[in-house]
Amino acid sequence: MHGVVMIFFFLIPSIPAVLGNFLLPLQLGARDVAFPKLNLISYYLYTAGGVVALTAIIAGGVDTGWTFYTPYSTTYSNSFVALALIGVFINGFSSILTGVNFIVTIHKMRAPGLTWFRLPLFIWAQYATSLIQVLGTPVIAITILLVVFERLFQIGIFNPTLGGDPVLMQHLFWFYSHPAVYIMILPGFGVISEVIACFSRRRIFGYSFVAFSSLAIAILGFLVWGHHMFVAGQSTYAGMVFSFLTFLVAVPSAIKIFNWAFTLYKGSVLLDSPMLYVLGFIGLFTIGGLTGLFLATLGLDVHMHDTYFVVAHFHYVMVGGMVMAFLAGVHFWWPKMTGKMYSETAARVGVFLIFSGFNLTFLPQFVLGYMGMPRRYHTYPEEWQALNVMSTAGASVLGIGFTLTIIYLLWSAIGGKRAEANPFQAKGLEWENAGSPPIAHNFVDIPIVVEEAYAYGKKHDEAQIESPEPAKEEEVV
Amino acid sequence: MRLKLRAQNLPRRKKLSDAAHSLGRAHHFETAEQQYESATLGMWAFIVQEILFFGGLFGAYVVYRNLYIDAFSAASHQLDISLGAFNTGILIGSSLTMALAVRCAQKGEKNTIIGWLVATIILGFGFLGVKYVEYSHKWHDNLVPGSSFVWEKPGYLDVAGGQVKIFFSLYFVMTGMHALHMVIGVGIMLWLIAKIRRNEINEHYFTPIEISGLYWHFVDIVWIFLFPLLYLIGRHT
Amino acid sequence: MSEHHIVPLKIYMLIFAALLVGTVITVAIAFVDLGFLNTPVAILIAMVKATLVIWYFMHVKYSPKIVALFAFAGFFWLIIMFSMTMQDYYTRGWHEPLPIPFLEN
């Protein structure tokens, strides 16, 4: 259930829902997303799906794991599989509708002068995410329906005793669920670009490479799903193809890391809390990504599949990566969204606790997994106790860190000091043209964009690109 | 970033008459054209999603047809080609009537729009009626997957019953999903007719008709693929 | 809505006729033994019919290119799904059979 809730109800919607809905129109210079009512339906579907899934948890939960593999989930499990799956199904439509909304918004609602290559990289990342949401989520929707039908009517499609192939379910499941991890991380990449540019006072190095790498990840991410099935009964030849393609998909992510590092170089780095989260991200995501390559190697995966190595890998990318990026974004745009400023000291303590707690929790798990400790077992041999206890201790520290973060953020929202419109002197339509928080329709008048993104530190003349409009324009104080 | 309080120096995008402004244009759009293009693109993004939704079923179909070609062939022979072909014709006809409804909307002929929409609905119901007949035949032949499924067709006894059952599972889920989408489409059409009669859709603003048409045509396309893949396997033997 | 191209009635009727003819051909050719080509031909005819519906009935011919790109992308992603899945099933026979209890009887 930790998996179901974290993946479907937290990580996938996190940045698109919390930050994307707010920032997309602002960064595009639009008054709202393309389909505001659809957006609202999206929210209600999320809530409804959440209620249904929570009911399944409270009624007794599922024992199939978040992956619902057949035939256990369809034929043998006595837990609330159908109910939990229906909750996930409803939630999936929330994701799809958000994707539709964002794609159209980015295509059609850009302010005058805002060409594709002047867009903030957060928008590029969100666009790539939305592509995955639209192309991938329906496949898990139909998979869920088939599993539910199989469970209710024993139609035989995934049951080997009736002629079905359980591996087919895994193919259809992972066709979505692998791109889903890119839904989770790509918005985080977008946040990193924004925060790094602001706190290095530099434009992003290699803007178009970062922009295209988001699209590349979205596309290549659909070709690698078989790396979850190396030992499931898939053909070895298919395994080799998937292994090779998985190595390929690591390349665009690496390109981003390099570009961010080069952005820092010769920048005027300010170590405010959003930036601390970003620096943490860069280190931890790199570790997570590299360990993913170990798992992509067919031979190594045979030993490490279903061990704690996998658990450590994905927690590094999802928590060390995505959650840190999410927190960076929340901290960066908190004054813009709430109009209040949080305590920077408390925030730095939070970063420290979360970073150290996280590493204490999950670094030992790499060792445990390498030594062979399986996942999803309720017990382990005594010789591994020290590492397990270390991991649990780290989780406590992590928990304190998250609690502290929630407390000081809520504290600031209720009674914190007022934030100005642009407390970090960041570039971007949301910072320079809208208040904190913005008015109901975002802008008094739709801005007209004449500079490239992240024009930090440039004098006015250098930043100016050939304006599409006639020369006469009025400067506004 | 330069802030302009008034975009006076820019050529304005074309705006419609006041009649259009008061009808249907949402305030977060700058022009009616932007709204129309957004609606079209949005419906297409949704259709892409639908393609992948049905695509999962077609994917399962592709796998099992390759694995169990004999069983699939035997099972497909149990389907009535004439009913299937007739249904294909009805659905293509309903696509035509829908396209004509959109055309009338473009030309501003309000009453004929309703006429063509009603025609589409009637054809849709015709399709669903034929499907009902087919489903009840299958029920009587014990070919609906579930506890009542029994495979005892003379001439096909060497084919595995379990494999045939998988064909019928796919048949019912695929055509059932398709029929569900048709029912939703009919509902949408009724909603459109209501809106036209309340004058919320007229010659100045008929985007809902156009994008509903896109949805209906997509449902037709799904059937265009379903028919040969389900009904016409191994008919030459 | 100045951009809207009103498709001539004749074109609609022509496409309609073509779709019906395509259906008749699909059924007729199913009864002709073309060996392994039966399936590809059936799919090809269906693809032609679908293209006609998309191009004319759905007005993609008269729409901005981005719409055509979306339509193409949807179907292209299906190809990805089918081919990458089938490359597993197709190559399973290339090595010792794995002990998966497929129904043999």
Report what the structure shows:
The complex is a heterotrimer of chains A (477), B (237) and C (105). Chain A is built from 16 helices and 2 strands. The longest helix of chain A has 35 residues, at 166-200. Chain A is mainly α. Helices cover 68% and strands 1% of the residues of chain A. Mean pLDDT of chain A is 92; it is low at 461-477. Chain B is mostly helical and 237 residues long. In chain B, helix 3 (69-76) packs across helix 6 (161-197). The N and C termini of chain B lie far apart (72 Å). Chain C is an all-alpha fold. Chain C has 2 domains: 1-62; 64-93. Chain C contains 3 helices and no strands. Chain C has helices at residues 9-30, 38-57, 65-91. Chain C is flat. In chain C, 31% of the residues are buried. The model of chain C has no long low-confidence stretch (mean pLDDT 87).
Please count the beta strands of chain A (DSSP E, at least 2 residues each). Answer: 2
Which quaternary structure do these chains form?
Answer: heterotrimer
The unreliable regions of chain A are 461-477
CATH class of chain B: Mainly Alpha
| Low-confidence region ranges of chain B | 1-22
What is the number of helices of chain A? 16
Tally the beta strands of chain B. 0
**Which architecture of chain B per CATH?**
Up-down Bundle
Largest interface: A-B, 66 and 47 residues
| Mean pLDDT across every amino acid position of chain A | 92
Instruction: Return the average pLDDT of chain B rounded to an integer.
Output: 87
The rough form of chain A would be described as: globular
Offer a concise description of the structure.
The complex is a heterotrimer of chains A (477), B (237) and C (105). With 237 residues, chain B is an all-alpha fold.
Entry keywords:
heterotrimer, A: 477 residues, mainly alpha, 16 helices, disordered C terminus, C: mainly alpha, 2 domains, 3 helices, 66% helix, 0% strand
Write the layout of secondary structure elements.
The complex is a heterotrimer of chains A (477), B (237) and C (105).
Chain A: H1 2-11, H2 14-28, H3 36-59, H4 72-76, H5 81-108, H6 121-153, H7 166-200, H8 207-220, H9 236-264, H10 273-296, H11 298-304, H12 308-338, E1 340-341, H13 344-371, H14 385-415, E2 417-418, H15 429-432, H16 460-463
Chain B: H1 18-22, H2 32-67, H3 69-76, H4 81-107, H5 110-140, H6 161-197, H7 207-231
Helix pairs in contact in B: 2-6, 2-7, 3-6, 4-5, 4-7, 5-6, 6-7
Chain C: H1 9-30, H2 38-57, H3 65-91
